[in-house]
Design a protein that fits this description.
NLP_P60_dom, two-stranded antiparallel ribbon, Peptidase_C40, endopeptidase fold (from Nostoc punctiforme), six-stranded antiparallel sheet, about 20% strand, Papain-like_cys_pep_sf, protease, signal
Length: about 180
């Protein structure tokens, strides 16, 4: 998916979520992120994960929630999207997700669908996670009273809290080797 198409898709999804019957969130300044490396979707499932995650923007946050009807917390959102769109059953908590099998990925190698892990309480213990959607942005369920939202890794808060990323979707190269 080209950079222009991805930006258009993310903008379109954000506009659609603004039309929902929920109160509009306070405006957030989003600065464009310029990547020096080409965008690589890495997996045919990545687009499905991207569309599903963006489609859930605006869903209410609920601690322990794991469905669109009940709301989501961060790990419930991730588990739901991966199971629904990729048939991948992930652990339920961020602590279990960060130690599961999967390729660790550097910030400069992020691809659509990669899982992002954060230590929002300080230190090095994971306490939050999201789904990378490209262009330096990710979808996550941030906090009580909020909703699932699209956010930017370039914000100082997320840069400070960032721990690592993990790839759980199969790559094109991996799929090509399957019988």
């Amino acid at each position: 998916m080209s950079t222009l198409a991805r930006v258009a898709l993310i903008t379109f999804a954000a506009l659609l979520s603004a039309c929902a019957n929920r109160p509009a969130p306070a405006p957030v300044e989003v600065k464009p992120v310029v990547s020096s490396s080409p965008i690589d979707d890495g997996s045919p499932l990545a687009a499905d994960v991207l569309f599903r995650a963006l489609g859930l923007v605006g869903t209410p946050y609920r601690w322990g929630g794991n469905t669109p009807d009940s709301g989501f917390d961060c790990s419930g959102l991730i588990k739901y999207v991966y199971n629904d769109m990729a048939g991948i059953s992930l652990p339920r908590t961020t602590r279990e997700m960060i130690v599961m099998r999967g390729q660790n990925v550097g910030k400069d190698q992020l691809q659509t669908g990669d899982l992002l892990f954060f230590a929002t309480n300080g230190g090095t213990q994971v306490s939050h996670a999201g789904i990378y959607v490209g262009e330096g942005r990710f979808v996550h369920a941030p906090a009580t009273g909020g909703t699932v939202k699209l956010d930017s890794l370039s914000k100082a808060y997320w840069q400070k809290a960032y721990l690592n990323a993990k790839r759980v979707l199969p790559t094109e190269q991996h799929l090509a080797r399957l019988p």
